[in-house]
Design goal:
The protein is mainly alpha-helical. It is built from 6 helices and 4 strands, in the order αααααβββαβ.
Length: 170
């Protein structure tokens, strides 16, 4: 029933947001700016923790990032991402090269969306005169796997693709 309703709605609107389980980066920025702009914090020291989740499964980046890295391929919708995950975790099956490429394309779209949002966050802090006096630390909590050695996403692993993350300090 969910898929039927979705197909009907796709005729008149973008439906990928239905699958998102986290706030998108632009929504996170809106909330962060509402805190920074609050008169109660003006002129005071502030610790602002901004956590973007666009690179996490389910991979449903917003337009235009949802197709940016897919070429002519279609995104893999939520139900099929769950089937692939179940095949890997519960049935110990592999993932096809096409499915893997499409999932990575969607993941890359999420990362590009996150990157753009971070740029907008920094620009917003600059416009508010905060960036120059701010300590900014950028890092990640983990990398992501796409069935290279069995599992997808992240979890209990010591492989570099999941544990080696960047850290930038300004």
């Amino acid at each position: 029933m969910r898929q039927g309703i979705r197909r009907l709605l796709e005729c008149c609107m973008e439906t990928s947001a239905f699958d998102s389980v986290f706030r998108r980066s632009d929504e996170v920025n809106e909330y962060a700016f509402s805190i920074v702009d609050d008169p109660a914090v003006q002129g005071r020291s502030l610790f602002l923790f901004v956590n973007y989740m666009d690179g996490h499964a389910l991979y449903v980046p917003p337009p235009p990032y949802n197709t940016l890295f897919l070429g002519g391929d279609q995104a893999i919708e939520y139900p099929w991402q769950k089937v692939i995950e179940c095949d890997l975790f519960e049935k110990n099956r592999g993932i096809s090269d096409l499915a893997k490429a499409r999932l990575i394309g969607q993941y890359d779209g999420g990362m590009a969306s996150q990157d753009a949002a971070f740029g907008q966050l920094v620009e917003g802090l600059k416009r508010r005169g905060i960036c120059e006096r701010a300590l900014i630390i950028v890092t990640a909590d983990h990398g992501e796997a796409f069935g290279e050695r069995g599992p997808m996403e992240h979890g209990v692993s010591v492989y570099e693709d999941q544990v080696q993350v960047p850290m930038l300090i300004k």
